[in-house]
Design a protein that fits this description.
Length: 288
């Protein structure tokens, strides 16, 4: 059976600032650091039960895997639930509901005492520690982040599969124009190559993250995350340094996002359908 051409992301136990900058940041290569946060209180404290106890009555925004609808705003949640109910659901059964981009600094400030901003030689954005939760077998669609930042993704409880591609692979990925995602009907954990033949030419990376491990994703890297068991992660970020990525980030934030919203308002579902179709036409043009 054909499968995606994915290399295992290199793993190290720990890393110095110099090693990180020279071996991974400068060449823009991903890495998993296995034992970097063992001295954080979060390493022993953070699990689903703890999050439930600390945020029980908070109402959290939830996302499932429904395709983008023109009526939804950019990143608008599909449902909400009390955190205690959500954690109970995660533990009880597989669920598609995920928490995506939840700013813990704002929501539960005391969690800040449980971690520190590591010195990887990059300036981390202090206001933006984001949390992500998911149930067994749920996935976060393939996307790259609007600011093309360097992302440090710390995982807690359970196991998560991550598949990454760099921006050079865009032409093989059925990327949707004027957006940050690929076709949502591609199952990246087991793609249908008859339907999506260009994926044969994509070269990417993969890993399975365990509790306490941190994944470095270089600037603008595409990422697809599948929760193999219920769990959650925290992302810290550093602004893109490569001028090309930085200008792409500015374009996305200042122009692309608003243009897309305006087109949704004017053209409705036709705009979404056109974009989905263009993803195939553009990728096939390159493939043939
Ligand atoms: O883990 C997830 O569900 C998504 C993570 C993500 O997209 C990110 O860290 O930027
Ligand atoms: Fe992301």
């Amino acid at each position: 059976m054909p499968s995606l051409d994915l290399q295992d992301i290199p793993r190290v136990e720990t890393i110095s600032k110099e090693e990180f900058i020279n071996n991974y940041f400068k060449p823009q290569k991903p890495v998993v650091i296995e034992r970097f946060i063992e001295d954080w209180p979060a390493y022993s404290k953070w699990n689903l039960e703890y999050m439930k106890s600390i945020a029980a009555d908070k109402v959290v925004p939830l996302y499932d895997d429904r395709p983008v609808d023109y009526k939804d705003g950019f990143n608008e949640p599909h449902a909400t639930m009390k955190m205690s109910d959500y954690v109970d659901l995660l533990k009880r059964e597989p669920t598609k509901y995920r928490i995506f981009l939840w700013n813990i600094l704002k929501e539960i400030p005391q969690l800040q005492q449980d971690f520190s901003y590591p010195d990887f030689g990059l300036k981390l954005m202090k206001g933006l520690p984001m949390l992500f939760f998911g149930g067994r077998d749920s996935h976060t669609f393939m996307h790259y982040d609007i600011d093309l930042a360097n992302i440090f993704h710390f995982h807690f409880e359970g196991q998560k599969q991550c598949i990454l591609f760099d921006q050079q692979q865009n032409k093989h990925l059925y990327k949707i124009p004027h957006s940050l995602i690929t076709r949502e009907d591609i199952n990246f954990s087991n793609p249908d190559f008859e339907k999506w033949p260009a994926l044969n030419n994509a070269k990417g990376w993969q890993c399975q993250l365990k509790h306490g491990e941190v994944l470095y994703m270089p600037e603008g890297y595409w990422h697809y995350m599948k929760y193999l068991t219920p769990g959650f992660s925290m992302s810290l970020r550093a602004i893109a340094r490569n001028p090309k990525n930085l200008s792409k980030a500015l374009y996305n934030v200042l122009i692309m996002r608003h243009f897309d919203n305006v087109m949704r308002r004017i053209k409705g579902q036709k705009w979404i359908d056109w974009k989905n179709n263009q993803a195939i036409i553009r990728t096939n043009k390159h493939f043939k």
